[in-house]
Amino acid sequence: MATGHLRRRRRAAERPNWRIVRYADDFVVLTDGERDDAEALREDIADVLQPLGLRLSEAKNQVMHMPGGFGFLGFRIQRHRKRGTDKRHVCTFTAVRPIQQLKDKIRALTAERRSRIPGTC
Question: How far apart are CA 30 and CA 34, in angstroms?
């Protein structure tokens, strides 16, 4: 969302700021406003997408509170308090499912080796 100067002006006027995180045809909109602000922003986004022949997916479209975190393209995004301070920052973690899928694939590839009895041919 614009420049730091414009964000400060919006904050001083008690208006919410927002950011778009985009990858290919998926995106997340983060806002520091209230739930009503997020709902209004969702409607604005739908209005922008409609002339392009696009629409928001009702199945994927959610408004949620950031501390609970959310999944986006195989990652878990959460806000945490920095240790020793009251400052908060956003952390990105690999989601549980992709890690489990990788472990399962490694187990499948190494199953034959692990099933052999040591010392025999």
Answer: 11
Per-residue pLDDT, averaged over 9-17, amounts to: 84
The string of pLDDT tens digits covering residues 21-32 is 888 888 888 888
* Residues 55 and 49: beta-carbon distance below 8 Å: yes
pTM listed for this prediction: 0.61
Q: DSSP string of the chain? A: ---HHHHHHHHHTT---EEEEEETTEEEEEESS-HHHHHHHHHHHHHHHGGGT----TTT-----GGG-EEETTEEEEEEEPTTSS-EEEEEEE-HHHHHHHHHHHHHHHHHHHHSPTT--
Q: What are phi and psi of 48, to 5 degrees?
A: -75, -40
